[in-house]
Amino acid sequence: MQNIEKNLNRIREQIVQAATTCGRDPDSILLLAVSKKKPASDIRQAWQLGQKHFGENYLQEALEKMQALGDLDICWHFIGAIQSNKTHSIAESFDWAHCIDRVKVARRLSQQRPAGMDPLNVCIQVNIDHEDSKAGIDLEAVPALAAAIQELPGIRLRGLMTIPAPRETFAEQRVAFAQLAAALADLQRQGIDCDTLSMGMTQDMEAAIAEGSTLVRIGTAIFGERT
Ligand SMILES: *Cc1c(COP(=O)(O)O)cnc(C)c1O
Q: Which of 7, 11, 34, 161 to mutate to test the pocket of ligand 1 (most atoms within 8 A of CB)?
């Protein structure tokens, strides 16, 4: 049995610690609770403890949980890879999508975002270590995709997201995150209005915060191991 309350308190403390260690304001880091493969009851419990942002990877599973939790004011983030045939539901049901890696998907999300809803917040996923197993684009391709997204009224570019390959040391973990932070700074210098670095998971959260993460995506440390 996971003690979600204890876990959530511990993670919040670790965020405060990591932020203060590097002279950052802890409130500048949003905690996204990653609830994939966990029941709606776990989400409800975390929500009752003040957690409002939840991340899901699998569309069907997410939609079922949204149904069960329709009475709660949750901000839903889609953090899985996006297939073109799934954009419609994502555009209708989510507040954020973190894994945009091609114009086609961005266009569809924009077109399919219902009128009357705020634009869907999106991040461009960068495949920082060029891994075949991961989605995302190369850093060099970021400016062009960012420029294309800016033309789309139904979505709003918030920043960049990455999942680096596992590394042994804190110093090594920081290198990949520093590259993403530099890419965001480049976009900002070009006058592109964006503010989000979606980086850091249970294993590398502190290193991500040290490099400027504004949104950490934490699953295991809150809800326990996934089976
Ligand atoms: C599963 C997942 C997470 C959470 O990972 P943990 O190691 O359990 O904290 C974060 N981001 C993405 C994109 C994920 O798929």
A: 34
DSSP per-residue codes, 77-134: EE-S---GGGHHHHHHH-SEEEEE--HHHHHHHHHHSPTTSPPEEEEEEE-TT--TTS
Planar angle of CA 27, 166, 187, nearest 5 degrees:
50
Look at residue 2 in the predicted model and tell me its pLDDT.
Answer: 72
CATH architecture of 2-223: Alpha-Beta Barrel (3.20)
> Can you give the pTM of this predicted structure?
0.97
Q: What is the pLDDT of residue 227?
A: 86
Residues in the chain, pLDDT under 70: 1
Q: Which atom of ligand 1 is closest in space to residue 201's alpha carbon?
A: 9
Nearest Cα residue to atom 12 of ligand 1:
79
The atom of ligand 1 lying closest to the CA of 205 is 9
Nearest CA to ligand 1 atom 13: 79
Instruction: Report the nearest-CA residue for atom 6 of ligand 1.
Output: 219
Q: What is the model's pLDDT at position 1? A: 60
Specify the pLDDT at position 151.
97
Atom of ligand 1 nearest to the CA of 220: 8
